[in-house]
Amino acid sequence: EKGGFDHFMLKEIFEQPQTIFDCMRGRLNAVNGTITMAGIQQYAEQIINANRIIIIACGTSWHAGLVAEYIFEELCRINVEVEYASEFRYRNPIINKGDVILAVSQSGETADTLVAIEKAKEKGAIILGVVNVVGSSIARISHGGAYTHAGPEIGVASTKAFTAQLVVLTMIALKIAYIKGSIDENRYKKLLLELDAIPEKVAWILNHHEQIKTIAQKYKDARDFLYLGRGYNFPVALEGALKLKEISYIHAEGYPAAEMKHGPIALVDEQLPVVFIASRDAFHEKIISNMQEIKARKGKVIGIITEGDETSKALCDDFISIPEADEIVAPMLAVVPLQLLSYYIGVAKDCNVDQPRNLAKSVTVE
Ligand code: M6R
Predict the structure, then answer these.
(1) Best of 158, 249, 335 to mutate for ligand 1, by most ligand atoms within 8 A of CB?
(2) What is this model's ipTM?
(3) What is the pTM of this model?
(4) pLDDT band at residue 357 under the 50/70/90 scheme
């Protein structure tokens, strides 16, 4: 059942080239320049005319929502808010008729997310689900949406569901931007091709897993980790830190790299590994200077960098390369080494990686 892998988590990480492909199959046609998603298409007008989109989720799914916020705002020029379901539901949120809610959930059973969308539905919002489990409660209560089609995820730590969420949310943003006319035709076509190339690029990263295992051995006894990223990669930093905490029980924090100066930099000493999600993008020079700041304080820099980026490499104590990609799709690649890093550290520490202590696969209590 684990298909020759030691753990479900590893199996699911390695399934990603296939699950990402499955998630685009029959939907994305890069040659014709089309994205087919009936459950979104139906609500396209409402989405375009919405005052705002509210993305509601918990945990890893919330991180996917944060990436989507950046993508939607950039490509669709629609106002987006991302909310923790638990916070959203317990205040008296302002929802106007015609607001569009995107509920993101692997299980489709997370209690807080479910109640949050029930409330919003009563107030007249349109609910669109981005859900993995077919026929789950969140899928049923939603007006429309799109399944992630990642297949059953057994490991408590979400891996393949996260990358599938990123793919679906990106396809939704592209579809809406195209209908709205807020994206340039060339950029649209380029991004379709970029998505198309993701499974192959993820497979490339997975082929380099031995190198990540070596890095895991080197840092497994660290007491704390810091994860830093900017822009589209900021939520990837949060996700990397969450994966490490839950799998290895090492304290880890994710931050937008520029926030470091506002407090967390006080933590930096020669003991502290700092993981930079530093793939080449519009913010690259900025993140390089953040890396220099950590080096100057003797922190250990572990970089997730674009293949061939010698400038970043020179600043890293250790690095993991990922293939070149447009910044919008880069999180789908950058997260994969972070999943593997936490997996290998967890295994090296003899942790129960498939079922970390105190955690449940779906949180059906409030
Ligand atoms: O099933 P959901 O996506 O609604 O679950 C939300 C979170 O409980 C979940 O993403 C959790 O954070 C992950 N299992 C962590 O790896």
Answers:
(1) 158
(2) 0.99
(3) 0.97
(4) confident
